[in-house]
Amino acid sequence: xxxxxxxxxxxxxxxxxxxxxxxxxxxxxxxxxxxxxxxxxxxxxxxxxxxxxxxxxxxxxxxxxxxxxxxxxxxxxxxxxxxxxxxxxxxxxxxxxxxxxxxxxxxxxxxxxxxxxxxxxxxxxxxxxxxxxxxxxxxxxxxxxxxxxxxxxxxxxxxxxxxxxxxxxxxxxxxxxxxxxxxxxxxxxxxxxxxxxxxxxxxxxxxxxxxxxxxxxxxxxxxxxxxxxxxxxxxxxxxxxxxxxxxxxxxxxxxxxxxxxxxxxxxxxxxxxxxxxxxxxxxxxxxxxxxxxxxxxxxxxxxxxxxxxxxxxxxxxxxxxxxxxxxxxxxxxxxxxxxxxxxxxxxxxxxxxxxxxxxxxxxxxxxxxxxxxxxxxxxxxxxxxxxxxxxxxxxxxxxxxxxxxxxxxxxxxxxxxxxxxxxxxxxxxxxxxxxxxxxxxxxxxxxxxxxxxxxxxxxxxxxxxxxxxxxxxxxxxxxxxxxxxxxxxxxxxxxxxxxxxxxxxxxxxxxxxxxxxxxxxxxxxx
Length: 526
Fold this sequence. Notes:
By secondary structure, the protein is of the alpha/beta class. It folds into 3 domains: about 5-205, Methylglyoxal synthase-like domain (Rossmann fold, 3-Layer(aba) Sandwich), CATH 3.40.50; about 245-370, AICAR transformylase, duplication domain (Cytidine Deaminase, domain 2), CATH 3.40.140.20; about 400-520, Cytidine Deaminase, domain 2 (3-Layer(aba) Sandwich), CATH 3.40.140.20. A 6-stranded mixed beta sheet has the order 10-15-14-13-11-12, with helices on both faces. A 6-stranded mixed beta sheet has the order 18-23-22-21-19-20, with helices on both faces. A 5-stranded parallel beta sheet has the order 4-3-2-5-6. Helix 1 (about 20-25) packs parallel to helix 9 (about 160-170) and helix 12 (about 300-310) runs parallel beside helix 13 (about 330-335). The model has no long low-confidence stretch (mean pLDDT about 90).
């Protein structure tokens, strides 16, 4: 059923984009009710507006906390026009019908981000007060009320929907269909739901002393973007999130579903080597394929780190995602351009390097602006969601248990190898020599098979495993991996320990003068 907008209630925090709508409403002869700053904004446009206080007979009180919470307002929103009792009661109490509600919400998320940032000038108590004051009460109440009564009125709950409303007013002269009203109602409920989730997450957050555990999975991620397809062409896919917070895309096609999965893996790995840290002793360059590291090296120059990362497995690098923690210079760009790759991520690009890399229009070049800040990871399983903390850290302890102490060179390689093993699918084995991945095994159903794969990879590309080191993401269930590694030339091992047969592997190392480090920290990745 079509409804004609004859009256509107407008009360918004953000005024940008509102002017053309107000002028259209005025031109259509719509009676406008408003409050506070919105009322003043409309009056400055020279448009007649009725203060909400004239309906409630109460001024805005308690510092603005109470101004629209009144039967004269909510009755006009919730009154059912086809219900005789409602109609009679509205007449009895002089409650006007409201056909359009334009209300947005206080900027809670923006205030929260500012109050918790170093830029906030005040105490922790001041920050908490500013956050609490931006918890909107009247706004969500009016939005929910209007959305509930979509059969009789239209609700607009965010400025992102102003354009759609403006087009509707222009094209249909203030008339709306029930389908249109219901669609706007759906958006309104979603807006309020996201707002409530943000507030609930703050109250459940670790920053709140003795916060209880939530009884529901509470997440809301905005900015949906449709993918060309999902993991395969017959699957639809959508990404929720704002990539512009993390990257500036300098070239190439749109990121695909699979690109994003690999870019995420690349970002997780390179985050282990922040520029200027002890872990980033030089430039780190890595190549990711199907979320696994297939090449990685740490060297004094970007070009050398690229060359050595590529040498680790030049076959798997084809069509990979590349990531580094250093600027891409001209010589590196020339070398990279010799192979086909999907994505390159770097903190900066020299101008000449960028020109070279842009030679292929589909190459995706991402300039890193910020690392994603994540404390939790989610995975949909069965009829629910698994939630876990992000796997942070490399090792909990450094327990030398072998036949000798690790040398300085072995220790550096073991630390490096353990990080790489952490970013391979289980069962994972990483073989490293001079901070370069020279063999890896991942995704196998037994640890010994992963080791066989790693050794074969090293042999395939003519690497000498003598004096190399081995990292395992989980314990050695038997001494067979240590034995095979030793026979291949490995001299030092790192693993979390925890097997009931740890002693077997340790004893083998003692008998053959091999180094072994127990970390106490497993890095399964499924």
